[in-house]
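Support request from a user on the community tier.

User writes: "When I paste my structure tokens into the form, the page sometimes reloads and wipes my input. The last time it worked, I copied everything first. Here is what I submitted, just in case something in the input itself triggers the reload:"
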């Protein structure tokens, strides 16, 4: 039996983000119920943590070969063409992730230079944006690992 590849750091980061979202949301609900007011920071942190959770989860899905794709064409093709399609898919994914990384780094740098502050808490905006290119890079690494494993036969596609 083959062992499923793992993306442990992203899995832990996603779980941590989910737990923090649950705790601050619960705290906000209880506070609103007891006092009629709410914490101002919860929405800002929740949105940030949802982005982290999304990218971390996507990275885990890439590593485990669980991203949504249409396998009908892959299964219908002979082995050589299937490999070419796998390389094409990886190239398209790498292009998109590369663009996210490139423009994400530019955005983080601009926000750092401009000293932009977040609207809710007044924290430096780049603190939130820094995670976008970082987690996109993690996804790119996982995409390369997944593609290598698919091409070598160590990772079988779903049937």
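"...and here is what came back when it finally went through:"
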């Amino acid at each position: 039996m083959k062992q499923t590849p793992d993306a442990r750091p992203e899995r832990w980061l996603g779980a941590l983000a989910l737990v923090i979202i649950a705790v601050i949301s619960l705290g906000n609900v209880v506070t609103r119920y007891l006092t009629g007011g709410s914490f101002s920071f919860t929405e800002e942190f929740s949105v940030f943590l949802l982005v982290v959770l999304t990218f971390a989860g996507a990275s885990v899905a890439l590593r485990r070969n669980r991203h949504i794709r249409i396998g009908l064409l892959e299964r219908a093709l002979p082995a050589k063409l299937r490999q070419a399609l796998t390389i094409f898919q990886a190239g398209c994914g790498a292009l998109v992730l590369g663009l996210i990384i490139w423009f994400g780094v530019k955005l983080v740098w601009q926000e750092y230079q401009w000293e932009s502050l977040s609207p809710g808490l007044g924290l430096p905006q780049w603190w939130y944006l820094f995670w976008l290119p970082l987690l996109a890079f993690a996804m790119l690494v996982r995409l390369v690992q997944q593609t290598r494993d698919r091409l070598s036969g160590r990772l079988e596609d779903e049937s």
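Agent notes: The reload is a front-end session timeout and is unrelated to the input. The CA atoms of residues 5 and 64 lie 6 Å apart. The two ends are 17 Å apart (CA to CA). Escalated to web team.
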